[in-house]
Design brief:
This protein is an all-alpha fold and 88 residues long. It has six helices and no strands.
Length: 88
């Protein structure tokens, strides 16, 4: 989900995409992509028992360790901790 590809799909330039996203969402396209991925990952952690490697691939990460680090940066705790606390 690169900014270039998203802008091509929408028929706008990358600069226009950047400007529109900033204006309407006070964010960057990349920050929005990360947020979408992390919210999807959170839902998968809550509603499934898929291993982290499967969830990582499902939300666009090729490596479970990179996914776990990104999830922790975004949500403040690890996917395993999140899943455990969601089960309680």
């Amino acid at each position: 989900w690169s900014q270039k590809r998203i802008s091509q799909q929408l028929g706008v330039s990358p600069a226009t995409l950047q400007r529109l996203v900033r204006r309407h969402f006070d964010s960057t396209p990349q920050q929005m992509v990360i947020a979408i991925r992390m919210h999807h990952a959170r839902r998968l952690l809550q509603q499934s028992d898929y291993p982290l490697s499967v969830i990582a691939r499902e939300v666009g990460y090729s490596d479970a360790f990179i996914f776990s680090a990104a999830f922790k940066r975004f949500h403040g705790n690890s996917p395993a901790h999140f899943r455990h606390s969601a089960d309680s």
